[in-house]
């Protein structure tokens, strides 16, 4: 039968062809169940209608269902056949519903001869109507009636529903006549879709067939275009709601992009338009190839396997493949670890490759539909056939006869264009980019079927590499064309190292996307900066971009900076080695190659320095400048760092990180350009004091002199002048008030809230401030601690912003200030505040061995302690408390959180203001801070700690 003949078919699809019969005799004894139910009825004085009999029926069914599902799960864990598992569960459900229905008619509401009006068909619809169920799926039932509902029908329906509910099933149900079904299906696309997939569970077959005949004739016929448009719009809305990418690292197996619902939508459209009952029929019609049929079957079976395991593992209808569950599902499906990749990462890579296949199948079907004019071509609205025909005419592309423009999309001129010249597999993307064209589905289909042509000879072809570099550095939308290249399979074949990271996830909470998706998004951010779209968000990068001389080297570095992820060695070093091998092939010269290799190897340098080091410490700047060496490399590294952080995921970038990067850049630039003149510490200190004095010119000389004497030299050498002025105004206003003062300030651009605290100094002050912030669920991004000569301390806390509105953020800041006051005045306890807050703990699936490193080379004045491990509520408070117990004076704290992992860096001295140089003391610090990571709330109970507590009037909290 031809495609057009099938598309015009009006006869109803036989129900027996819709759902394959599954033998479930090994899972449930249907005949034995009937006998046991009959025995209950015969032993009951009311013939099965009593409450006592109902209780026995319920108990029997509960045991039988539990046993049957247990056998299904056992078989599933052995054969790992997801679709078979779903079909077994659905067929078993049929058995129980049929037995309940028969028991009700024969024993509870006995009726030997049903009248015409008492006929009823119990029809499975929706997912159940497809003959598939997950363990936690809803049971969607349509009670189909010939006319209006009868008393007997109501009784049977009520008996059945209440039993199913008592058995723990979630049942969606409706009682409708055939007329009502037809009327509602015409008006409501959801109801139409549910009836499209229907299955007679039990009851009157002729009534069921009447519904099918009328549904095909009165609803389906002539409405394909309407149905397809509605389903595709529904799909787009669902994707937008749940995350418009198939590469989210915690995907929704049912509703997410590339998930089961997308496969369902694909088949709904095919079934509705082509009047087919199975994917196999689509292959017989030539709509999809045999290879694509295998892709469909493989994807459906895999996604059902994942979904069924999710439900079995959690005991509920869990659809999100969360971090907590991924390792267990990977284990259930039999994945093993490989060097550089955990078992869970291999499983998730397979998941994302399947999701990509689902997207490919959708595009293939849409191409076939468009060929038959089942839906308008993209960009065309309404029924303006004349305009459609004019725009659909083939137009030539200058410089090529192998491709033409078809409705603003690039299309092949013959099926042999890639076989005749394999370079066309790269050229097609270059032509689409330079002419701002989309891709015709037929072109993408032919590309996928020609991937074997991408071999070593093509990879070394100078023209192919030059064309690829043109696509990568396109002035308009390089990410769009690279994404199409990746989805078609070309990018991973042309650059095999990229192919290894396609669909690769990193099992952590920091990276929101797969590695290849992250790289493409990084390129998109830079392209948007180039086009001037992100001036407000990234003013410095936008200002520098026009001065970039090595534009193509930067694009290559953006593509390659994470290309070595998933290997046993450091991905930055391995990536630099790949860059040195690949760049000459792409046509980069020796200087550009070395520049790309440096950018890849040091692509984390600027973000780590800005976030984890004290950039007010002069040695930090000098060490960073030594690694960067030139202003051009500094410019490139800044832009790469911004793009990299922005592309990690929603909420990862904020203005505070931007401010840190800008400050690091501005501090480093003079050193690289020779603008920094070496002067003595005393000269720099004197100049800084004079600059502050000049800004405080409206103070009396006595006030000014007294204030300058409050601060130690390091304050003037490390604190920006504008901040010194703000501190001075705050401290001056507090002179006539009580000893403890706080002030809250917001900065919407930086995305931070700053809390300044002026209080009498004591060793645990920072710990208590951190405890107050933890009690409010606030994340500290940075902390500066300034001890003053009069025994007071000025602590400045920088918090990540939570609310969009300044008024809301100020209220949060004042609430935290209240917690600080309560803690320092002994009116509340740190332990109670932390235990009562709602901060989320990392999923139990994550385990990070804590690491503590004490370094005296990173600063000339301070010892730097870097701690790394699993984050938890109150961790910063515990760490700073332990440092106070260890007689360490914290001068600044730099807090970086990467998903479940925290990296905290503290610049400290001993109580005399000198570095920690004793080996035994260093070892004690490392040992105790490691212990604190693993034992929340613990602390050393030593005599010196207890005496210090008494001296400061502190109570243990």
TrEMBL record:
GO function terms (MF aspect): [protein-PII] uridylyltransferase activity; phosphoric diester hydrolase activity
Region (Uridylyltransferase): 1-398
Domain ACT: 754-836, 864-940
Transmembrane segment boundaries: none
Gene3D superfamilies: 3.30.70.260, Beta Polymerase, domain 2 (3.30.460.10), cca-adding enzyme, domain 2 (1.10.3090.10)
HD domain ranges (all copies): 515-631
Entry's EC annotation: 2.7.7.59, 3.1.4.-
Activity regulation, short description: Uridylyltransferase (UTase) activity is inhibited by glutamine, while glutamine activates uridylyl-removing (UR) activity.
Domain remark from Swiss-Prot or TrEMBL: Has four distinct domains: an N-terminal nucleotidyltransferase (NT) domain responsible for UTase activity, a central HD domain that encodes UR activity, and two C-terminal ACT domains that seem to have a role in glutamine sensing.
Family, per entry: Belongs to the GlnD family.
Known function: Modifies, by uridylylation and deuridylylation, the PII regulatory proteins (GlnB and homologs), in response to the nitrogen status of the cell that GlnD senses through the glutamine level. Under low glutamine levels, catalyzes the conversion of the PII proteins and UTP to PII-UMP and PPi, while under higher glutamine levels, GlnD hydrolyzes PII-UMP to PII and UMP (deuridylylation). Thus, controls uridylylation state and activity of the PII proteins, and plays an important role in the regulation of nitrogen metabolism.
Stated name of the protein: Bifunctional uridylyltransferase/uridylyl-removing enzyme
Organism from which the protein derives: Jiella endophytica
Taxonomic lineage of the native organism: Bacteria, Pseudomonadati, Pseudomonadota, Alphaproteobacteria, Hyphomicrobiales
